[in-house]
Structures are given as C-alpha cells and as structure tokens.
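Reply to dn_fold:

You asked what the input looked like. This is it:
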Amino acid sequence: PALIGPVIADETLWACTTCGYCEHACPIALEHLGKLYGLRQHQVMMEGAFPHELKTVFDNYESQSNPWGLPSDTRADWAKDLDVPLLTSAEQSRQFDWLFYVGSAQSFDDRAKKVARAFVRVLRAAGVKFAILGPQESSTGECVRRAGNEMLFQSLAATLAETLNRLQVARIVTCDPHAFNSLKNEYPAFGWRGEVLHHTQLIDRLIAQGRLQPVPRSERVMFHEPCYLGRHNGEYEAPRRVLAALSKDRPLEFALNREKAMCCGAGGARFWMEETLGTRINVLRVEQALQAQPLVVATACPYCATMISDGLAQKGAAERVQCRDIAELVADALAGPVPAAT
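and this is what came back:
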C-alpha cells in the first residue's frame, strides 16, 4: 500500500527541513532522513507529485545550474571590480592555496554577494592565495537532492566533479554549509576528493596562526547555528572562537544551541516553498533570539541570513538587531587597509 497519503500526509513529507534534529533526539537512534529522501525521490521521479514551487526550481537548475535561472556565465559578476583570479587550468591550481567555491546564493543574491565580497577582503588580509571558478562554476546540486530530484542531482554533481578533477582542485573553502556538506561528504562518490573547509573554519585557523588579527568591536552578538555545519558535520566551536575574537564581551547563546539548535527553516529545499502550517520557523527562531536582546544575530550560511533577516523584519526588530555573516563581522574588525590582489 502507498505510504504517502494514507500513512504519511503529503504536507508532512514536504514540511521537513532535513535539519537532522529528529535523528539526534531519537532515544533509539532511528535514522529517519535516508528514508525521507527515498520517499521524496519516489514522489518526484516516479509519481511526478511534488510542491508546484519546485517545478521552476528544478527547471532553473537544469538550464542554468542555479535556482534563480540567471545566466550561468554571470557567476563571477559579483567580483568584477575585485580583481579576483579565475582558475582556468590545472597548472594554475598549484599557484593557489584554496579554491573559493562561491555557490549560487553568493553569486546571484544581492544580500549574499556582500558576504562573498567580505570574505575576499578577509582572505586578502591574511595573505591567502585563492581563486574562483567564475563561469566554470556550477551548482553542487545539494538542494535538488534534498528535494528528491536525484537524477538531476547526479547530473549536476558529475559536471562539477569533472570540472574540479580537470583543474586538479585539491582544497576548497566555501561560505555555504550546504555546499560544504555536499562537497565533503557526497562528492567522493562522484570521483572528487579533497580538503573542504567552511569559511568559519578557515578564518578560525587564520586567527590561530596570527595571520588575521581582528580588533574586537562587536557587542551582544548571538550565533545562529547552520544545521549543515553543526548537526550534520559536528562543527560547533570554530564559529564561536571567531566570534569570541571579534567581541568586546561574551557572545550570547540561544537557549537551543549546538546539537539542540533550531533550524532557520530553509533546509531541505524549504527555502523555495511556501510555509503555510503553524508558525513560520524563521519567525519562531527570531523570537527565541529576541529573548536575549542581541544587537547582532551572526550567521554562517546565506540561506540562514535571508531567513533570519526576514524573521527580524516580520517581528519589527530589523532596525535594532542586525543579521550579519561572520565573514562580514571579521571584515569590519580588520585594522588598516587590505592588500590588493597579488
């Protein structure tokens, strides 16, 4: 008998943000997510039954390798005036310490572009040699896999893995926890293996090495945990060490933090779907933040940033509480001019 409908309501299947809290909290260690992915894959690829908003998203990924459907050859336009090197050959790879995998959000979303630009400033301040793929960059496909379109994911993953192998990319840093998770944990199955760091991990390393010396300027900063950095990959301390180095006081914590942190509501392709049941997740998370009266909610994910910013606006708190990515806070804390590209 069919599970979707009689046993599992359609809205239940698609409400999941894939945050992973159910698996963490389950007292008998049931692994729910793999089964949920399988159910979504069946609905998408066999039944053609999925939320209507995802049709456009799937089409855009298929045609332009990004959910907005914007021209893929404009992926580097955010950096036009920054003189960021483009990686074009395997020989060139040896000249750089890291490939900065920008991702779709920071390539095309105006708010997220500011984070990419801030991270470039941080990397240059630390003397890191890096490059981007520019028009050669394509999506990891992480979003469509979580949404159940496994065939499209495998096509996107094979394309990007081929590019990374052809250019002999060995080390990647990214500001997107979803891309971080996919490249680190899923891309070995597609033939690419290398070191992958989230930008907070690299920034933490650069501060520890003395290559970055931020001036503490922030106050009453509270960190919102990205699920795909924290629960899915176990990285809780690097972003907190960075915030501690930036802060004049002790950073604040949500009551629900680290392993118990609540999702922003964007994961599992929920970012692209309307939320019609109950209280919006991002609004609930912002309500939790406001209890501690922060001046800044720090994020480390472009999708979290959008969700938290929208939640602050809906609660009428956007004028008194900022939502900033950690890279932006670090860039603000740098003393003196930043060297130009070398």
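The radius of gyration is 20 Å.
Hope that clears it up.
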